[in-house]
Design goal:
The protein is of the alpha/beta class. The chain is built from 21 helices and seven strands. The chain folds into three domains: about 190 residues, Rossmann fold (3-Layer(aba) Sandwich), CATH 3.40.50; about 150 residues, no CATH class; about 30 residues, no CATH class.
């Protein structure tokens, strides 16, 4: 396990209330077993986009395949066709690209290695896991991924989850109803099980319908995306290249922002794009800025940067970002292009909401604050959704070029639906 430092994050009253509610439910005497969803509940990844893991593998793929297809698009399409397990996915890729069985195995192993190396424990999920251990509850983990049991066991052990009673690997099951298996493996009645996860249908509705209690631990990336306009601003700035390998490092920066700043769930704050949180602004706005060596600030931006350097909490956030980015990616960061790393600051300096600007009011003179406000404009943002793994290449193209709700999108939906029938991989 990499030596990842623990951040000192001050919790809001709402976050403290959520923590107390969830730990109280775990400690109840009528709760005999606690079931945790593994992905996004017990473990986090630094990926903010569905293709990020696969972008790491483009160079590996090019060693064996000389065609025009990207590995990212091929891998996403393969999982759409073969969602059950990774062997079927790579068989599909092998058949479509005509790579050898040996090369197919190398790529499969490489994906498992990259994923295993980059995942890390979700701090809040781990606190709940340790609470269940402390109260001597039976612990069940559901791994609903394409990866085999051996890989999952290694990941759990690496992240500090070695002591559990049952591990249910979804791709080993013949039934699609995983929760029936949870009840069976728990050894207790459904009413004595507490299920914790981030999928409303599978982790909340199904357990409750079967008589269990359930708690929602929202996934971090959707929380980050809903917290403000930053992600939509950057997507609009780079509508055709944002999902490419050129922006992989920035995807990872946004992934860390989501994983750490929204580890303990928090919601959007009125007139703020950063939850009205000084530390968060320092983390993603100023922590990323120093990595963009080509950025040249204007006079107003220089004054904002000078003010930030007088704000201890923003400085702490920026330093924590740099420490975390180095801890997670230091050994591979020399391969990165740092495209986009000045974009959070551009957004903050040109389009920030009043509540966020006011966090620097003590470091900026009143006339300077007024000058800043006079330069603020409404940002152009993309109407985006966090791309699901099952969205194919044509669907992603439609989202970029023709946002939902526009007249041209309505017209092109019919055309694109026909194009889907002709996409060949």
């Amino acid at each position: 396990m990499k030596n990842i430092p623990e951040l000192k994050i001050i919790l809001s009253l709402e976050q403290v209330a959520l923590l107390n509610k969830m730990t109280t439910e775990i400690s109840r005497s009528d709760c005999k077993a606690v079931c945790f969803r593994m992905k996004d509940t017990l473990i986090s990844t630094p990926f903010s986009e569905c293709q990020d893991l696969f972008l790491f593998m483009e160079d590996d793929f090019r060693q064996f395949y000389k065609g025009r297809k990207s590995f990212s698009d091929m891998r996403i399409y393969a999982e759409q066709r073969c969602p059950k397990n990774i062997d079927m996915i790579y068989d599909f890729i092998m058949n479509k690209t005509k790579i050898t069985k040996e090369n197919r195995d190398i790529l499969l192993k490489r994906e498992c290695e990259i994923y295993s190396d980059l995942v890390f424990p979700r701090n809040f999920g781990k606190r709940l896991f340790e609470e269940a251990q402390r109260h001597k509850k039976k612990i069940i983990i559901v791994a609903d991924t394409v990866y085999p049991r051996k890989v999952i066991v290694n990941i759990l052990d690496k992240c500090g989850y070695s002591k559990y009673n049952q591990l249910i690997v979804a791709n080993e099951l013949e039934t699609a109803d995983i929760y029936d298996t949870v009840i069976e493996k728990s050894g207790v009645s459904a009413s004595k099980i507490l299920n914790i996860g981030g999928d409303i249908e599978n982790d909340i509705e199904k357990p409750i319908m079967k008589g269990s209690k359930a708690l929602l631990l929202a996934d971090t990336i959707p929380l980050m995306l809903k917290s403000g306009r930053l992600r939509g601003f950057i997507q609009a700035k780079y509508p055709y290249s944002y999902d490419s390998a050129d922006f992989l490092a920035f995807h990872l920066a946004m992934g860390l922002y989501g994983a750490y700043m929204f580890d303990m769930p928090k919601g959007k704050v009125y007139q703020s794009d950063f939850c009205k949180d000084t530390y968060m602004i320092g983390f993603i706005v100023f922590g990323t800025l120093e990595s963009d060596k080509n950025f040249s600030p204007n006079d107003l931006q220089r004054k904002i940067i000078s003010a930030y350097k007088k704000n201890d909490e923003m400085m702490r956030g920026a330093e924590d970002f740099r420490i975390l980015f180095s801890a997670h990616f230091g050994d591979i960061s020399h391969n990165f292009s740092f495209n986009g790393f000045s974009m959070p600051f551009e957004f903050f300096s040109e389009h920030s909401s009043p509540a966020d600007r006011n966090l620097l009011s003590e470091q900026l003179e009143k006339d300077m604050m007024q000058e800043w406000e006079s330069h603020i404009t409404e940002p152009k943002t993309a109407n985006f959704q966090n791309n699901d793994i099952n969205q194919n290449a044509v669907g992603r193209l439609a989202e970029k070029m023709f946002p939902k709700g526009t007249k041209i999108r309505t017209i092109t939906d019919g055309i694109l639906s026909k194009m889907k029938q002709n996409v060949k991989f």
